[in-house]
Amino acid sequence: MSILDHIGNTPLIRLDFLVRKRGVKIYAKAEFMNPSGSVKDRAAKEMFLDGIERDLLTSDKTIIDATSGNTGIAFAMMGAALGYKVKLCIPANACIERKRLLRAYGARIIETEPLEGIDGAIMTAKSIAAAEPEKYFYPDQYSNRANIDAHYKTTAEEIWYQTEEKITHFIAGTGTTGTFTGTSRKLKELNKNVKTVIVQPDSPFHGIEGFKSLDATLCPKIFDPTLADERIDISTEAAYKMCKRLVREAGLFVGVSAGANVEAARKLAEKAEDNSVIVTILCDSGTRYFSEEIWEELN
């Protein structure tokens, strides 16, 4: 049994302290409990295995991709466990904790122009892979169907059974959009009445690491906008505030993207019908953000 076999089957945690409306329940899926510490383990595993199955990833090739951190960490973990070299393009202003973790797993990092954000990292990875295709396996997480499939086959099914088929709303944020697209598509097949909500930063210039403002950046090719019944915009400040509430009131030390997701779930709960069951994603752990100013004010 390899470390890949321990990805998924994460618990749902009920967040009663956020709910004021009678009968409404909010659950958060604890994806930080995956082996490398984030929801991206699911997509990375599926892309990894898909590449091997289609003979695109062979023992002599190096995995290369663009990342804001978590997918790259998942690739680096799998590369270390299974003997593949990994090279990752990451914005230079990404959290120091993430870059140190990537190096700890043995991945090589190429830091890209910070002002270009993840889009700059994508263009760099694409250019390197195109120049030497015989040398690299480029999964391209923003365009890879396997990213969607991972959540279609696992995340959605787990949520469906963990809520005893009672889920009424699913909420996820914008990064690669793989979690939202894959999970939403499957849940709507299981019950056409499930409402799916996408969460975005309220500004192109934001501090919600891992999220994209789809209005101002390159839209991932895998995103299916027809699946979104509603969109909720969250400010960086509101996401930070929710992170602090989660650690102090629920003992959940999670990252800023998780805070944004939960804040969106809280807002939705205020207007949801009685007996609604709302599920969102705790994307990763707060330990990857210790150097961020969000934690400097805690006493």
C-alpha geometry: globular
CATH architectural designation of the largest domain: 3-Layer(aba) Sandwich
Report helical residue fraction. 25-40%
- What name does CATH use for the topology of the largest domain? Rossmann fold
Poorly predicted segments: none
Give the tally of structural domains.
2
Tell me the β content: 15-25%
Number of continuous helical runs: 8
Mean pLDDT: 93
> What kind of oligomer do you see?
single chain
Structure characterization notes:
- This protein is an alpha/beta fold and 299 residues long.
- The protein folds into two domains: 3-39 and 151-295, 3-Layer(aba) Sandwich (Rossmann fold), CATH 3.40.50.1100; 40-137, 3-Layer(aba) Sandwich (Rossmann fold), CATH 3.40.50.
- It contains eight helices and ten strands.
- It has helices spanning 40-53, 70-82, 96-104, 117-131, 145-162, 178-190, 236-249, 256-271; strands at residues 12-14, 25-30, 62-66, 85-91, 108-112, 136-137, 169-173, 195-201, 230-234, 277-282.
- The strands form two sheets. The chain has a six-stranded mixed sheet. A four-stranded parallel sheet has the order 5-4-3-6, with helices on both faces.
- It is globular.
- The model has no long low-confidence stretch (mean pLDDT 93).
